[in-house]
Structure formats: C-alpha cells, structure tokens
Amino acid sequence: MKGYWVCLYEKIAEIEIQKKYVEKATTAIQKYSGKFLVRGGKNISKEGFKSPRTVVVEFLSYDDAVKCYNSNEYKEALSILKNHAKRSLQIIEGA
C-alpha cells in the first residue's frame, strides 16, 4: 500500500528559510521515491483552521514514507525549520 505525508501549515517560515528547507526536504523525499501531489495552491478551509499551505507527498509504500521522515537527510531539512514554522504532518497508509 502506498504511503502519504499530509502536511498542513498554520504558520510559514520566512521565505528564505522555507526555500532552504524545501531544497533539503525535496532531496530526501526524492531519495525515497516520494512524489509531490500537492504543493501549495488554492485551497478553501471548510472545517478547522485555515492552512496557508498544504503539501501532500506520495510514496511507493507506507514504510518508505516513514523511513524518509526518519532519515538523516530529512532530519537535516527539519533542523532548518526549527522554530520557524508551525504545522501538522501525518503519515498515512493509503489504498
């Protein structure tokens, strides 16, 4: 079964910090065969908080999604965002 990251931002980092994070995160995601399905774009919040940015990444398997998140490469990307963004990221097994 495929695995997905679903990330909802509440607060976005300064643009330069976000760019550095995206560069490092993309490298880690691609290493684990992740593919971006949603990367921002128009959205309407019908319930809960309004997210200024939503990201959805698809992996070949749930295990790959977990491995990517726990990888040293992604941890390096996360260290860039530390205290500069508020978000929720869930790893979900898909159909």
Describe this entry's structure for a reader.
- With 95 residues, the protein is an alpha+beta fold.
- The protein has three helices and four strands.
- The chain has one domain: Alpha-Beta Plaits.
- Helices cover 38% and strands 31% of the residues.
- A four-stranded antiparallel beta sheet has the order 2-3-1-4, covered by helices on one side.
Produce the secondary structure layout.
Layout: E1 3-11, H1 15-31, E2 35-39, E3 53-59, H2 62-70, H3 72-81, E4 86-93
Antiparallel strand pairs: 1-3, 1-4, 2-3
Helix pairs in contact: 1-3
Summarize the structure in short.
This protein is 38% helix and 31% strand. With 95 residues, it is α+β, with helices and mostly antiparallel strands. The chain has a single domain (3-39, 62-93), classed as Alpha-Beta Plaits (2-Layer Sandwich), CATH 3.30.70.
